Amino acid sequence: MITNNAPQNSIGHILFQYDLYPEKIEQFGKVKKIVTSRGTYALKESSMTRDQAHWFSHVMKRLDKLNFKQLVPLIPTKYGDLTITHGNKTYYLQPWFLEDAQIPDEKKEKILFKQLGKLHGLTVKHQEFSQETIETSYQDLLNRWEKRRIEMEYFAEEAERKTYMSPFELTFLTHYSRLDMMANTATKYLKAWHDECLEKKSFRAVLCHGKLDRNHIYYHPNGYGYLFNFEKAVLDTPARDLAISFRKSFQYTLWSEDQGAEWLEAYQKFILLEDEEKKLFASYLIYPEPIFHCLDLYKKRDGTITELQFVQLLEKRIITMTRVNYFIHKTLLKNESSQPSE
Amino acid sequence: MDMLRRVKLEYGLSDLKWIKTNQTFQSESGKKRIRIWKDKQLLQWHVKWRDEISKQSGILLDRMIRTKDGEPFFICEKGWATIHDEIEEVFPSSGKEKEWGRLLGTSLSYGLDHSDECQRFKKKQDIPLQAVKKTIDQLTIIDPMAKIVLEKSYFEANRRSRKAIQLRERIQTKKLPILTPFNKLADAKEVFFNLFWVCGDQQPIKGYEPIRYLLEHWYVKNGETSTTKLLNAIEDYFPLKGDQGIILLTECLIPSELERTVSQLQTRGNETTDIMEEYFKKWETTRKLVALLGNWIEEDREKVVAR
Fold first, then answer.
1. How far is CA B275 from CA A270, B130, B145, B213, in A?
2. A4, A19, A80 member nearest B89 (Cβ)
3. B91 in a domain, yes or no?
């Protein structure tokens, strides 16, 4: 029964649109677990704008039409809407999933990249060629990387001027020239992608999840992984989405190039990367952004992480980046020359 | 097939019981109302209107609950049937001007943008005052004093009409919003402290007549300060201080209360006292509302001049 006996700031009017009358509500971050006599649901609160919510709904409908089953579906309101925008918040409802706690860690990414491959394979489309789009993407990324490189150079110069460098600064400086080389290699691969695209006069776009990692996949006891949180979904090159997920997955273990080969194989069962996409993927991965990001954190340190922990984090990322370098040249681009030409 | 059985099938609802046969019923998801539509184009207009206004304003409306197949209605013997929530608790007006302003402002904005979409919804013609005058002359069975008042009112009504025409000539746009009738404050219901607007099933109206009546009711119930707050709240979503505000002012100037009173007296001459009493009140409300609205529209213009 509909009653108004709820606190004024309650989500009663949101649940009303689903005809849900909760017996129990539990909060997990931005998700509310809603237990009702009709079942258990997850109500997600997000900061999507009305336009973003519209695009998000479109994405979910499109995936449903494409029969992409490995995603946590949205439950429509009684009026048929997939999202509800109220004030500056957007809400949507999904079934509550119980995860398989037994799944071994090393299997998690394999499942994840398999599902990402399926998503990309199902949505891949050759786009109408536009030199302007290629040029703009190329130039934007190049400019951003150059800006980042200058920031790092500045940090290195400042550290060098100090009489006593901190252990973190010392570690960074020890590896600085190698990082600079990585940034250069990334730029060269980016140029190779740019030139090949212009020569081929074609490029592909897929529906990119935008932030897929272990936090955005449910591992079901049936062995499947169900993707969710498509709030940042965009149409873009598969290389970018794949690189984002690779980078996010690096952080869970001390990553090895064999794992990378497995992930790529799981992904490529559904969509084979084209040569220029491999170059773009290589450039994204090899650019030492994770290390630069570590520096950003260090510059903003507030004492919650010790100097030693920062050094450990930096070392871990440097090892990963070295392995990424091997992975790129020995696995991803093994049939090609190991370095792009000048 | 019995309507409730159809509803069960179409919506997957259970435990259904009539509260009022063929109108309202109880379900496990609360009280619901069935509406039967004979005009499909009107129904489709209402579906779209409610969906859009609700999405754009974030305010709940008695939107069409979707069938199991996601459709907003189903075909029945008498036409097309829709299901809606039936809410009883009334939403307050005083102190809730912001919520009302959002609903009305969004409706005006959407109604104006889609003004040309449906040509069948025309503006009501202005009252032919000559005909009203003729009817007053023909009223023989009423109190002579009442007749004198109406005759004098006719001259005032004529002045109001002329003023409305003059104002209309001053403004550039002739575009009018299409609106559902916002006549009754009681159509605002409350769901968990939120406004839930009941749109009903009437033909939409082109022009400001629904807003005029709503403002009149509001003014009578909540007074001047609250009405100004409501206008300000509408202004946050729709530029009512511009030309559209002038069109609203011309709508308020049209002496429709005289026409209504005369036609009531024609059929219910023995209730002259009550009808005239109501007429005086209505006339006074309109007069005050026109003054308030005029001042409110002019307010900012004066400020600009004063600077």
1. 79, 21, 13, 18
2. A4
3. no
Beta bridge mates, A127: A203
Q: Per the CB < 8 Å rule, is A87 touching B51?
A: no
How confident is the model over A308-337, as pLDDT tens digits?
999 999 999 999 999 999 999 988 887 554
**Residues linked to residue A205 through DSSP beta bridges, in sequence order:** A125
| B85 in contact with A, Cβ within 8 Å | yes
Shortest CA gap A124–chain B (Å): 29
Contacts of B96 (CB under 8 A, 6+ apart): B195
**Whole-complex ipTM:** 0.85
Q: Which residue type occupies A161?
A: R
Kindly report the CATH class assigned to A11-95: alpha beta
The class that CATH gives domain A105-333 is: alpha beta
Return the axis-axis angle of helices B144-170 and B272-306, rounded to nearest 10°: 30
Asked if B160 has any chain A CB less than 8 Å from its own CB, the reply is no
> B111 with B105: CB under 8 angstroms?
no
Phi-psi bin for A153: left (phi > 0), alpha (psi -120 to 50), beta? alpha
> What is the tens place of the pLDDT at every residue in A170-210?
999 999 999 999 999 999 999 999 999 999 998 899 999 99
Its pTM stands at 0.83
- Chain A contacts of B70, Cβ < 8 Å? 76, 80
